[in-house]
Amino acid sequence: MVIGDELHLEFPLSSNIYDGTIDRWSTNLVQFESRTKADYEWRHNNVVNARMLECDVHDKATWNKSTIFEVKK
């Protein structure tokens, strides 16, 4: 959900400790595959029907692949 300049992220299949807010100008959310291309290649070859909306997200320590399965208003 986007409120003003903030993107509110929720990861329903993970612990809520991963949920959070990112400023729209943050450098912690970047273009798909720009940081984790090898992970996406593995996912494409090994995970079926899981590519809804993918992006790379920085979790305050490392870059990780993420899949957005649902966007709610």
Overview of this structure, please?
This protein has 73 residues and is of the alpha+beta class. The protein has one domain. The protein is built from 1 helix and 6 strands. A 3-stranded antiparallel beta sheet has the order 1-2-3, with no helix packed on it. It has a 3-stranded antiparallel beta sheet with strand order 4-5-6, with no helix packed on it. The longest helix is centred in the middle third of the chain and has 10 residues, at 37-46. It is globular and about 35 Å long.
Output the helix-strand order.
EEEEHEE
Shape: globular
Provide the β-strand percentage band.
25-35%
Number of domains: 1
Number of helices: 1
Strand order of the largest sheet: 1-2-3
Q: Helix coverage percent of residues?
A: 10-25%
* Total beta strand runs: 6
Taking pLDDT < 50 over at least 5 consecutive residues as the criterion, the unreliable ranges are none
Largest beta sheet, briefly? 3 strands, antiparallel
Distance between the termini: 6 Å
Mean pLDDT: 79
The class by helix and strand makeup works out as alpha+beta
- Rg is 12 Å
